[in-house]
Design brief:
179 residues; mainly alpha; Death Domain, Fas; 11 helices; transmembrane; endoplasmic reticulum
Length: 179
């Protein structure tokens, strides 16, 4: 995709409100004026830096002017945008298309969301269930003689386990010791 087509695609994004401020536009125009080969002449640079015109108008005129000049001029604009407004450069719609143009490539942002959509409470709930099942299986195993130790642990844990759950577990352990 040529830089002119990319610039045409990004034009609305760049000219929308509060994307680029006065200072960033002035820096970009100055860089395009001073870079070798000179992209903007001194007269053109003054026209696009004129504070009497609105920022939206100046930026729109600059982008249209660069598209008329050709692909090299548009490429230099993208280079100036990357230097002077890197965050905005990274958020450009054409950059996002270029990043995800490979169908075999994994979109890491989407994958990260898919892996982390449940949060820490879900993890703690699953861990608690797994730990409870492990303790239950360990206590129910007939080969182990840990009923006395398990009763002591459960007896001293009213803070960790609720009183009702603790009482049910104690009754279960008493029944197990009778059998």
């Amino acid at each position: 995709q040529s830089y002119c087509h990319r610039l045409q695609h990004d034009m609305y994004f760049l000219t929308s409100t509060s994307r680029l401020n006065e200072q960033a536009v002035d820096k970009i125009v100055l860089q395009l004026n001073r870079v070798y080969p000179q992209i903007l002449t001194n007269e053109e640079a003054e026209k696009f830096r004129n504070p009497k015109a609105s920022l939206h108008t100046r930026l729109s005129d600059l982008l249209k002017h660069l598209q008329k000049k050709g692909d090299r001029h548009c490429q230099e604009f993208y280079r100036a945008l990357q230097i002077n407004a890197e965050q905005l450069f990274n958020d450009l719609p054409s950059r996002k298309i270029l990043k995800t143009s490979d169908p075999t490539e994994i979109d890491t942002d989407k994958e990260q969301y898919m892996l982390n959509d449940r949060g820490p409470v879900f993890f703690l709930a699953c861990f608690s269930v797994a730990a409870g099942l492990a303790l239950f299986w360990y206590c129910c195993n007939s080969e182990t003689q840990v009923l006395g130790r398990a009763r002591r642990i459960l007896g001293f844990s009213p803070v960790i386990i609720g009183r009702h759950v603790r009482n049910i577990c104690m009754l279960y352990l008493e029944d197990m010791s009778r059998n």
